[in-house]
Amino acid sequence: MPGCAPDEASTFVLAAIDDDGDAGPIVRYARAQAERLGLPLRVVHVCTGRERMPDADCLLSGALYDCLPPEVATDIERQIVRDRDPAHALIELSHGAALVVVAANSDPAGMPEHLGECASALTGRTACPLAIVPASGPTSVAGRWR
Q: Is the C-alpha dihedral spanning 61, 67, 72, 75 positive or negative?
């Protein structure tokens, strides 16, 4: 996101992870952007009612320690939000963010050109820029999935 500077109300870069995809690309991209902007990184998981809070906490910790060096992972903010609609929760959180980072469709059986429900629902609705990182399976080539 070159040229994108945070406004005065922006206090963090938000990386949203779920339990069905590889968090690595999301966390690493969001961390790089947070460093570039001089802002803290906050990693969030939205519980939709299917999982327990300890499971969500393990998901966040595991994602950070699997994707980043331990000395970096300990300094990252973590947040668990309960909301039946992850897009709604992330739109609300975007009001304090400089950037929201989410994954594209992580379902290998899904339509290859489909962004995924959450990423599609966020497009054009966040209060800050939105970065959609390709899922670990398909790769993006000139705007098309293969």
A: negative
Outline where 42-85 has alpha helix (H): 53-67, 70-73
CA pair distance 108, 84, nearest whole angstrom: 23
Over residues 71-109, the pLDDT tens digits come to 777 789 999 999 999 999 999 999 999 999 999 875 555
Count CB atoms within 10 A of the CB of residue 41: 25
Please write the tens of the pLDDT for every residue from 112-132: 556 788 899 999 999 999 999
Distance CA 55, CA 49 (A): 12
Contact yes or no for 80/11 (Cβ under 8 A): no
Instruction: Using the Cα atoms of residue 38, residue 89, residue 17 and residue 43 in order, give the sign of their dihedral.
Output: positive
Instruction: Report the predicted TM-score, pTM, of the whole model to 2 decimal places.
Output: 0.81
Dihedrals phi, psi of 6, to nearest 5 degrees: -70, 150
Q: Are 30 and 68 in contact (CB under 8 A)?
A: no
Q: Give the relative orientation of helices 53-67 and 24-37 as an angle to the nearest 10 degrees.
A: 70
Contact predicate 31/75, CB 8 Å: no
Token couple for 22: 């590889």
